[in-house]
Each structure stands twice: as C-alpha cells, then as structure tokens.
Specification:
Helix content is 25%, strand content 29%. By secondary structure, the protein is an alpha+beta fold. The strands form two sheets. A five-stranded antiparallel sheet has the order 1-2-3-6-7, sandwiched between helices. The chain has a three-stranded mixed sheet with strand order 4-5-8. The longest helix is centred in the last third of the chain and has 17 residues, at 154-170. The radius of gyration is 16 Å and the shape is globular. It starts with 29 loop residues before the first helix and ends with a strand. The structure holds nickel (II) ion (NI). Nickel (II) ion binds at residues 96-98, 138, 142.
Length: 179
C-alpha cells in the first residue's frame, strides 16, 4: 500500500488541463491506480483525480460504495474521459481533498453521459446519475484545472478567499467554512 501526498489548492498542477493518456500505456498504470485508491481511502474521499497526486494525466478513480444506495457499485477507474451529454441541474454540497475544511453547495448537471477507458483499456460509453454523476463532474473539473469553489457567487467566493490563501500557504485553513 502506498499513500501519496495530496496536492492542495494553490499548486499550479491543479490549474492546468491534464494530458490524455496513450491507450497502449493503460496497462502500465496499475501501480499508480492502486496507489490512488489507497490515497483516496486513507483521506476518506470518494473520488480522486491524478493531478491531485501530482500526475499530469487524464485519470481518475471513484468509489461511492460506502453510501447505502451505491453499496453494490464497484470502485471505478476513468481514463481519457470526455463528456458527451449533460442533462438537468441539481444543487449538492461538495468538499474536496485539495481544499480541506471547506464545503459548499454547487449546482451541476443531474445526469451525464461520458466516454472513457476503464483500467483494462476497454472503451466505454456510460450514463451516470446521482452521486456518481456528481463525483465524475467534480473530478473531471480537476482534470481541466477547475475547483468547485470557482462556481461560487462573488459574495460567497469573497468569504472563502482568505481560506484558500491559507490553504495554499499551509495546506489547511485556520477554520473551516460551510457555504
Ligand atoms: Ni476535489
């Protein structure tokens, strides 16, 4: 088991769009994928994007099986994910391992259809809703250099501004915030 350090808000790798992975190289990712799952479980997250552990790659891991209604859903790996369709809108509170102690309600699509490769290199097109849709969209934002705090209204963003500066300096804020 290998837990990797999670990079925090303020690190430039979290603000850039990551690179797609050569599909022929997917079999080489096994170790990194296992380490990403280990890291996510250790940090008690439900999703993790590769750039959150310092890798410039379009790769994310998700496991929502601790939630009752998803207990039969296996952990999932998404490689080179592209959104084909988004529908509806729903507001859900989010947090982020790269922005500790800050939570906020964010409006995103209710369902999403994505095209991706799984960890075996199989091409898939699948529709997701509920918490899976939410986590996929949050992690995909990471891979595109975005944070959930980018969606806050100017007034709310002002409230978290100093906390985000504290996180970029110290890795954590002086106090938590829920918006
Ligand atoms: Ni996040």
């Amino acid at each position: 088991m290998s837990v990797l350090p999670v990079v925090k808000y303020g690190n430039t790798i979290l603000r850039k769009k990551v690179k797609f992975i050569n599909p022929d190289m997917i079999s080489d990712l096994r170790n990194l994928i296992n380490n990403m799952f280990d890291t996510m479980y250790e940090e008690e997250g439900i999703g993790l994007a590769a750039n959150q552990v310092g890798f410039d790659m379009n790769l994310m891991v998700i496991d929502v099986s601790h939630l009752d209604e998803y207990k039969n859903i296996e952990p999932m790996v998404f490689i080179n994910t592209e959104i084909l369709e988004e529908k509806g809108y729903i507001e859900i509170e989010e947090g982020c391992l790269s922005i500790p102690e800050i939570r906020a309600s964010v409006k995103r699509a209710e369902t999403v259809v994505v095209k991706f490769y799984d960890e075996e290199g199989n091409r898939k097109t699948q529709k997701f809703s509920g918490m899976l849709c939410r986590v996929i969209l949050h992690e995909l934002d990471h891979l595109n250099g975005k944070f959930f705090t980018d969606y806050l209204s100017p007034a709310k963003r002002k409230l978290v501004h100093n906390k985000l500066i504290e996180i970029s300096k110290n890795g954590y804020p002086s106090t938590g915030v829920i918006l």
